[in-house]
Amino acid sequence: MLPAFQWKGDHLLLLDQRKLPWEEYYLRLRTLEDVARAIEEMKVRGAPAIGCVAAYGVVLALKEGKTLQEAVSRLRRTRPTAVNLFWALERMERAGEDPARAEEEARKIEEEDYRANLRMGELGSELIPEGVNVLTHCNAGALATAGYGTAVGVIRRAWEKGRVKEVFVDETRPYLQGARLTTWEFLKLGIPTVLITDNMAGYLISKGEIGAIVVGADRIAANGDVANKIGTYTLSVLARQHGVKFIVAAPTSTLDLKTPSGREIPIEERSKEEVLFINGRNIAPLEVGVRHPAFDITPASNITAIVTERGVVYPPFGEGLRRIMDDSDG
Ligand code: MRU
User: Fold this and answer.
1) Are 17 and 120 in contact (CB under 8 A)?
2) Where along the chain do its domains lie?
């Protein structure tokens, strides 16, 4: 699997996810501004990957002679919903101004994320019923992390264990993370993959064709409400209606216990062009009104289990999430 990013000591190689699946092209990011723009323009995306890349952005900034504060405040303005960004920047602030120490911290953030994914894959795969089709939304794979993936990690491990028949992937309008990125990953892994448009999920779930839904998360509030790619909430309602397991896989860096519920999570609104245009061509009259919320909130009550690297949490999530964080802090 091609890594989403690779630290090279004086620059960061970044697989340009806007060009996938047509072209596997690595950009060379050398400055703070290169990194900030790559995050804003979604050349890199996915909560854990954004956190890791931002950490290396701080290292590049310090090597350019910029202050830690300049770096952190520029990167904080890139994308508002994925809490991993703010979590990684807080760690970088604690590491301080010394570039060598900052580099060490950024590498640690990356390594910890990779290990967390392997662990979540192991734990989460046990929750997948035997011999079912699994549906996933957006891309929570190797491309969205330091490697292996969260939701994709769970599914690929479950597939290795013989539990998964086929993976169904929602195309994920408007940025098409499912169609362009997740199918690309699963095909590279040799896992049988079926692409559907977002509006086909309800029909297939109602026919009993999907045995589990596994998604990632951008931020998990203290009560277990989950912010994830727009469309996740809709799938959770379908899962509840039809008694299908709805599993969220996310590292503890995605937990935001300071935010009480999903209502307080900031939801990014992106440009209307991303909805109105496909491949440079408008798909509706240009003067139409357009909304583009990039994430939605899945209420904790629609979630079967949250898989983290520190264990699987079941309802009531408030208590369970606090416990896994307390156990490790104390
Ligand atoms: O807008 P994106 O592509 O950054 O959104 C990504 C998602 O919503 C993912 O599901 C989430 O970040 C988890 S990635 C392991």
Assistant:
1) no
2) 5-117, 127-329
